[in-house]
Structures are given as structure tokens and as C-alpha cells.
Amino acid sequence: MRVVFAGTPEVALPALDAIAGSRHELVGVVTRPDAPAGRGRKLVASPVAQRAEELGVPVLKPEHPRDPEFQEALRALRPDCCPVVAYGALLPQSALDIPPHGWVNLHFSCLPAWRGAAPVQHAIWAGDEVTGATTFRIVKAMDAGPTFGVMTERIREHDTAGDLLTRLAEGGAGLLVTTLDGIEDGVLVPREQPEEGVSMAPKILVEDAQVDWTEPAQAVDRRIRACTPFPGAWSTFEGERIKIGPVTLAASNLEPGEIAVGKNHVLVGTGTSAVRLGEVKAFGKKQMAAADWARGVRLEDGARLGG
Fold it and tell me: Rounded CA gap, 91 and 111, in Å?
């Protein structure tokens, strides 16, 4: 099939590379417009745009996929199908109707669970033991289209959202190519999603990532791992915000937010048992081991994180 791939961030690259190496003809790529990045805030092309240029594939960067100029350019590429991974813009029906086999999305959950922008983060935060990736045909309702295929992945004890998403992106790339193969061969029939088991995974905001030390230790651990690397879990120390990396559970009992300092560790109390801090990043400083941070600020027992 002639395919036009739509995606934007680095997590979409395994699928783009897999499609480029498949039997299908990659005739174009759709991605978000160049965005300011770095200290100089210079415009930088998305990771998908950069990879497409390396592959010598035409790149379309519409401000919005409803733009008539974009839709004309897409029609000119004559795609049979448009595979999608984390494109980042809503597709109007006029764009969805262009390829005969529609737009096929790779979503990082086992639908209908965790529809929305942050399925991996919410799966970790909720304490799920298993998640996965699903291919489905995009319809107007969010992540509600009929599904083609699914893969599952166990959520490991210390997985961050970044760790899990990396594995799903790699495994999901093969699932997406297999789905395209099945569509072309006429052996895949999409199945409507069940009405039971629907859960939503809205974008996690910076304010959502603030650690609540009154929660049980396992809930604190899951929140931090779910928000790593983005948007980054955080708390406050002496009125200044600090980023908190993944923690491990400890046997000590401390009051919520209370700190206990050892030679090579820093413990913080929660609503149940304490947790051992991993890495900490104070404002204007590099990320460092919690014990190094504690020495730098001359942390003493009885100090507190949070309000």
C-alpha cells in the first residue's frame, strides 16, 4: 500500500522506521510544525520530521489538518492508508475520508482502557499490572474506533512512564506493520470496542505531578514513576520547588513529608512507611543523588518536604 505516516515525537520513530523498512511504500509524512526549543528558542523540526528528511520522504507540516492546502497536498500523495503514532492534532472528518483504508492509530493501551493523551502514565499511576498497545481506525470520538490488533506488556515493579513507553513503542511498531499487512491482504476485520471497561487518560499537568506525602508509600511511588520523565514529579523544600526522581520503599516510619538523613540516603515519610529518595533536581541545579543534594543544602533530620 501507499502510506503516509503521521507522528511527531521521538516515541513515533520506531514505527516510522518499521514502516520505512516494510513492504509498504512510504510516500509522505505528516507532523506538527517546527517548534521553539532550547535556550535560544530557535525553531526546531520534530523528531519525526528530521527522520523523514533523512529517509528522503516528503514532509507536510500543517498548522491544522483541516487546512485546505494540507488536504490537497495529502490527496496528491494518493495514500491508501495513513498510520498514526502520537501525531498530536485532531483530525477532521474531511481528512479522515481521504485514504480509502482510513487512518490507523497505534495507541499505547489495551483499548477501551485508558483512552486519551496519557495512557501509559495513567496505567502506572493506577497500579495496573498489564498494559499494551492497540491498533484501531480513527473515528471522530476519541480513541473509540474499531480495533485491528493488540499486544500486551507487563508493567514492571520499577517502570517509569519513559521505560514502559519505550518498550511499547518498539513492540507496537511491529504491531502497526502487521496491521497494515493484514489490511492490504484483506484478512483483518476491525472489531467495535466493547462498551464495558472504558477508562480515560487525560493529559497529566504539572500541578498533577506534585507529590502528596500524606498518600500511602505505594501511591507516592506510582505517582512519581508515572510522571517520570514528563512532566516530572515535584515537591517543595523551604519554599523552593524540587523535582523528585523515582523512589524505593523503606521500612522506616516517619511523619508525612518528614526527612531522615543518613550517610548515603535520604528517607521521606508518607501516609504509611517511608520512601528512599533516588535523584533530586533543585531549581537551577543539575540532577543529583539525594544524598549529595542533602549534603549540599546541609539537610538535617526533622526537615520537611511539601507544605
Answer: 19
* Rg value, the chain, Cα: 22
Cα separation, 116 vs 55, in Å, equals: 30
**DSSP code at position 7:** E
How many Cβ atoms are within 10 Å of 296's Cβ, its own excluded?
Answer: 12
Cell of 295: 549534603
Helix axes 13-20, 161-185, angle to 10 degrees: 30
C-alpha cell at position 194: 466493547
Confidence check: pLDDT of 284 > 90: no
3 state DSSP class of 41: coil
Which triple of cell numbers denotes residue 77?
Answer: 500523495
The pLDDT-based confidence of 221 (bands split at 50, 70, 90) is very high
Q: Is the pLDDT of residue 299 over 90?
A: no
Cα–Cα distance measured from residue 55 to residue 46, given in angstroms and rounded to the nearest whole number:
14
- Strand 259-261 relative to strand 266-268, pairing: antiparallel
Asked if 232 contacts 224 with a C-beta cutoff of 8 angstroms, the reply is: no
Q: Give CA–CA dist 77/176, Å, rounded.
A: 21
Distance, C-alpha 193 to centroid of its chain: 22
Average pLDDT over residues 177-195: 96
Distance CA 12, CA 224 (A): 24
